[in-house]
Design brief:
The complex is a heterodimer of chains A (170) and B (441). Chain A is an all-alpha fold. Chain A has five helices and no strands. Chain A starts with a helix and ends in a 6-residue tail after the last helix. Chain B has 22 helices and no strands. The N and C termini of chain B lie far apart (56 Å). Classes of the chains: A mainly alpha (170), B mainly alpha (441). The interface between A and B is large, with 59 and 60 residues.
Chain lengths: 170, 441
């Protein structure tokens, strides 16, 4: 494989891993925020209006940004009725072809997310609620997460291509 | 193209994509994005993201990662081992007692978790090896673990009922309460089946030797201590939610905290165990969430075609079915679709099509939620798709083959179908408890 491809795979995989490992800890922040809401309302008798919405922002970042890492770890299930019967090399060959569909889907998602973010920036979109937070940060995070997922999908494509030709890069 | 032709093309395209073994979310996402572009032109390029963004507004889904996290904490901290020990000793001397005890264990786990993944992990790694060592029939006990863990989505808390509640716009508290009696009834039916089967074929479940279970009564009582933790977790999580103290999403955070404290108190929670638990939580959560967000796009395309009205017209105007025939057709169609579609995706795509029709026909949406959940339980257990099958293969001891797993579910699926029929005939089984709780005074 060309050196550039090897670099790309190495670099993207390492970014996905680092961001994914950081993201997996945000589940504790989410738990903390929700607990804070339950405690302040029931025990201190001063309800906070923003806790659930905050948790909503965190979870969205959690699965969008964590997506690339989960794909790298092969956590996404496949229907393995036929797939499981093939050898590793054949699997890689099939994946090279079908990964193109994965990439196309992610490109569509990315285009949609960018246009939705542009809209949010242009009109200063806010969430309609008591807290009334700006929607721009979460949309930017989603664009970044989907873009990372796309980079990871391309990296997976290269890895499968290499595997189909009998070499390993990672 | 007619509705039918478009729907068939989309479903067929998806089936082909899925058969290639590509990740399920990618297969569904690509087919729906392609269909959107084909049907509505380039303007539809934003549809996949707009559909995905719907998941942002479905904030009750943030219970999902929290339940997954809890499940891993319970299984990896040794809390579940203690529970198994309790059931083992107390039920061990009955005929088929370890299998009965495993169902009991599964009910307790189900009351602490809203998914079947936790029960499956605990059943496959703790109960199965113990029963295999005592020469229990492997096909029977594999079925016991699969069926028992499927109670996770029927006994409250339940993520499937949360998802249903969002789609059908029904209160989750009522839905959860409606699942209690059917869940316990189904567990009872499993036990009846085990008892009868072991009476007829005693060789399936050799009695555990007296010496092994022999211990002073005081020791036996001490084992019951293992039951305290689950009770407390259930109270703080589901109890406080039903009483209206915590909101739904807060209750799952309370549950996750309670489980973490229990694990820390046990002293088995090392940094490594914790890191492994949250890593797996991220992986499984992302898997489910990406399937849901791809399926939402598929659903949006179907919705744009006016599929709800098309189905209504087909069932009521064209075939002139009575409401009950429509209901039965729906349940049967789940089974057929379950063969072509991933189960989680099916939840997201099919429920919005059927629920409005169910309500128009005058059926109770809470009751239908329970029927829907049991259908999901069956779908998750039956091939070719089924997370329970998938997880079982990954977690079960190596001597259990794929054929064993497929064969093992047959009697339990029949029992579940029987339970489903009972609840269709006697809706009060589901509705009695929520009516009692919410209508008093």
């Amino acid at each position: 494989m060309p050196k550039l491809v090897v670099y790309y795979v190495k670099y993207v995989d390492s970014i996905s891993t680092k961001l994914g490992r950081a993201t997996m800890y945000t589940i504790f922040i989410m738990i903390g925020v929700l607990l804070l809401g339950a405690i302040t309302r029931n025990i201190l008798n001063m309800p906070l209006s923003w806790t659930v919405e905050m948790a909503q922002f965190i979870i969205t970042g959690y699965y969008i940004v964590g997506g690339a890492y989960s794909m790298q770890l092969e956590d996404h299930v496949r229907m393995d009725l036929l797939y499981d019967r093939f050898s590793g090399k054949t699997k890689a060959k099939i994946d090279v072809v079908t990964n193109i569909f994965l990439v196309l889907y992610l490109v569509a998602l990315l285009i949609g997310s960018i246009s939705s973010t542009m809209y949010a920036i242009e009109y200063g979109e806010r969430k309609f609620s008591q807290w009334n937070p700006s929607m721009i940060p979460i949309k930017l995070i989603m664009v970044a997460g989907i873009f990372l997922m796309l980079l990871q999908a391309v990296s997976t494509f290269f890895k499968d291509l290499a595997k189909a030709r009998g070499i390993t890069i990672s | 193209m007619s509705y039918e032709a478009i729907a068939l093309t989309m479903s067929g395209g998806m089936l082909v994509m899925l058969l290639t073994g590509q990740r399920i979310f990618a297969a569904i996402g690509f087919v729906s994005a392609a269909a959107a572009l084909g049907l509505y032109g380039t303007g539809a390029i934003e549809m996949p993201f707009n559909a995905a963004f719907k998941l942002f507004n479905w904030y009750p889904m943030l219970t999902l990662p929290l339940f997954i996290y809890m499940g891993y904490i319970l299984s990896e901290s040794g809390i579940a081992d203690d529970l198994y020990g309790m059931f083992h000793v107390w039920f061990g001397n009955l005929k088929g007692g370890l299998a009965i005890g495993t169902i009991g264990l599964m009910v307790v786990i189900s009351a602490m978790n809203g998914l079947s993944v936790a029960g499956m992990a605990i059943g496959a790694t703790i109960a199965l090896p113990e029963m295999l060592r005592r020469n229990y029939d492997k096909v029977m006990i594999t079925g016991v673990v699969q069926a028992g863990s499927s109670l996770g989505i029927l006994v409250p808390p339940s993520v499937v009922l949360v998802l249903y509640g969002m789609i059908a716009r029904q209160p989750v508290g009522r839905l959860w309460l409606a699942g209690v009696v059917p869940g316990l009834m189904m567990a009872g039916l499993f036990i009846v089946y085990i008892v009868i089967r072991c009476k007829l074929q005693p060789e399936l479940a050799p009695t555990v030797s007296k010496e092994e279970l022999d211990m002073p009564f005081k020791e036996k009582l001490k084992l019951l201590k293992a039951g305290i933790v689950p009770f407390l977790i259930f109270f703080f999580m589901t109890g406080l939610f039903i009483m209206g103290v915590t909101s739904l999403v807060e209750s799952s955070a309370v549950g996750a905290t309670a489980a973490t404290i229990a694990a820390l108190a046990k002293g088995t929670m090392t940094r490594k165990v914790m890191e492994e638990a949250i890593r797996k939580t991220l992986g499984i959560s992302c898997m489910f969430m990406w399937i849901i967000l791809a399926a939402l796009c598929f659903g949006a395309v179907f919705d744009g075609l006016g599929a709800v009205r098309a189905i209504e017209a087909l069932f009521i105007t064209k075939w002139e079915l009575t409401p009950w025939q429509v209901l039965i057709m729906m349940q049967l169609s789940y089974i057929v679709m379950g063969m072509f579609l991933d189960d989680t995706a099916m939840l997201v795509i099919v429920a919005p099509l059927y629920v409005p029709l169910v309500i128009t026909l005058g059926f109770n949406p809470i009751w239908y939620g329970i029927l829907y959940t049991i259908t999901c339980q069956i779908a998750y257990m039956t091939p070719p798709f089924g997370y329970n099958l998938f997880l079982m293969r990954a977690m079960a001891p190596p001597e259990i083959t794929l054929t064993d797993i497929y064969r093992s579910i047959i009697p339990f699926v029949l029992v579940m179908t029987f339970a489903l029929i009972l609840i269709i005939i006697f809706p009060q089984i589901a509705l009695w408890l929520p009516d009692l709780f919410y209508n008093r005074g």
